[in-house]
Amino acid sequence: MKRVVFNQKGGVGKSSISVNLAAISAEQGYKTLLVDLDMQGNSSHYLGWEGDGPSVADLFKQTVGWFGRLPEAESYLYDTAWPNLSLLPASEALGPLERELEMRYKIFKLRDALKSLEGEFERVYIDTPPNFNFYSKAALIAADSVLIPFDCDGFSAQAITRLMDNLLELKNDHNPDLSLEGIVVNQFNPQARLPRQLVAELTDKGLPVLKPELGSSVKLRESHQAQVPLCHLAPKHKLTEQFRGLWRALEAESVVGREALEH
C-alpha cells in the first residue's frame, strides 16, 4: 500500500501525519518507507536525517543526464534509528530541479522507483509539498491512495473543492486506480463550535472524514524537536493513541472513500 499525504494548503500537518503513521506502521512490524518530496525536508529532519548522503533529488537527477547504468533505487534510502522504517529524504535541490524534470516529462520516475521497491516494503507513505506541482503529481501518480489533512480552518474548507477537482483530473489522466482514503482532521478541538461545524460540512458533502480526529498538543512539538516519532517518545500520550486509532482505521478499511473520486 502506497499512501500519499497531500493538501495544497501549507501548515495542515502533512509531515507530522506522514511521519507518525509511518512510524506506527514500522512499529507494528511492517517494512515501511517514508518518501519526502517537500524541499523543506521537515519529514526527513523529523526522522533524524541531517542532509548527508543521497536524496530523492539525486534519484530524480539520474533522469536528467546519466551515463551507463542507473543506480538501484535502494541506493538512495536511509535507515532510520527505528526497526522497519526507512527514509527516502528530501533536499533543497528539488526546487531548481523541478523545471528541468517537467520539461523532460519525468513525472513517472517516482512511480517506477517505488515499483522496483515493492518487494522491499509493505507500506509506503509519501509527504508532499503544499502545492499541486510536479512532485505532488508524481506522488499521486505513484500512490494507491491519498489522505488529505484538514486543519479545521475556514480557508482550508474553501480549498477542498478545488483540491478534489485537481485530484479527479489527475486520476482520470494518469492514475485511474487512485482512491481517496479520507480526510484526516488535524488540530481538532471538540469543545469549539467552528471545528465541529467545518467537519460536519465536509461530511454533508459526502466526503470521507476519518476517525478519530487528531487533537493538538505541545508533545508533538517536543517530538519534532527530539526527532523522535510520538509512538517512541510518548507511547501512552493521548495524541499518540489518536494516531494509533487512525492507523488502525486505515489498515482495517483501506478502501474507505474509494468511490469519492468518482463523483
Would you kindly provide a written description of the structure presented here, covering whatever features stand out?
With 263 residues, the chain is an alpha/beta fold. It has helices at residues 14-27, 42-46, 56-61, 94-103, 109-116, 134-142, 154-173, 193-204, 218-226, 230-233, 238-252; strands spanning 2-5, 32-36, 78-79, 85-88, 123-127, 145-150, 179-185. The chain has one domain: Rossmann fold (3-Layer(aba) Sandwich), CATH 3.40.50. Helix 1 crosses helix 11 (238-252) and helix 5 (109-116) packs parallel to helix 6. The longest helix is centred in the middle third of the chain and has 20 residues, at 154-173. It is globular, with a radius of gyration of 18 Å.
What can be said about this structure in brief?
By secondary structure, this protein is α/β, with parallel strands linked by helices.
How would the blueprint of this fold be written?
Elements: E1 2-5, H1 14-27, E2 32-36, H2 42-46, H3 56-61, E3 78-79, E4 85-88, H4 94-103, H5 109-116, E5 123-127, H6 134-142, E6 145-150, H7 154-173, E7 179-185, H8 193-204, H9 218-226, H10 230-233, H11 238-252
Parallel strand pairs: 1-5, 1-6, 2-4, 2-5, 6-7
Antiparallel strand pairs: 3-4
Helix pairs in contact: 1-11, 5-6
Number of strands: 7
- Main β-sheet, spatial strand arrangement: 3-4-2-5-1-6-7
Structural category: alpha/beta
- Along the chain, the helix and strand elements come as EHEHHEEHHEHEHEHHHH
